[in-house]
Amino acid sequence: MHENNLTNKGKKNSLSENLRCQYLQAMGIQTWFDETLELPKVENESAIENTLSAVSEVKESVKQNSDLKNNENNQSAYNEEKSEQKKSEQNNSINNITLLNEKIEQCELCELHTMRKQATSGEGSETAKLFVIIDSPVNDTADEHALLNVNDKKMLATMLQTIGFELSSVYISSLVKCRPAEKRAPHTSEIICCDDYLAAQVKLIQPDVIMILGEYASQQLLVSQKSLTDLRLRRHQYLGVPVFASHHPRELSGSLQTKRKVWADLLQISKHIN
Compositional bias of type Polar residues: which residue ranges (predicted)? Predict the structure, then answer.
């Protein structure tokens, strides 16, 4: 009789260990068995079934949570893909300078459009390595398409030739695409309305370097209150493109000192052109 109890006890201990391993394995936990440890007794088969059922429910709950998380991740990835696709479609809608110029011609974002006869988008090579930016189209010439007057354009051409560039090989644009009235500088609000157009031009041209001319234009593009003296000879960035500030061509006439400063600026720029 005593032997039978031992045998039965041994069977119960063995059964309890098997169940313990099943519980842990069901939860994804690796098991090991130390024979020196005393194992807990299982009171009855009903308790065993209840425990197994509970483990099964936990396992199913974990699976459901995992499936839910996967669904959320998939939805998030889908939303990101749709967002990128939308951006791509928007970019493809303006995939060349001609289409961009047409869009600028139709622009009515600020009051400048009510005063213009012709918007001035930009001019020059569409494969330019150097992108030149001024504040606004010149308003002292009868040519509605002109960005610079004759004298300033000649001076800019001379400036560029010192580093081996022809005027026709660069691209010239302005912060605003319409002439402000009464020869005034463009307002910040007007420049903001044209931000997307300038950004689109830079992305389409893909220059090595941007040269921004004049203190006011430099402050606006670089969002800075610093003087041109402080902004010069420093490398800035716009849309990931290196930017260097310098004097506007109209400031060079009769000023040898200013011309020397511009020469120093051009030397800096030439180092960043591939």
Answer: 63-78
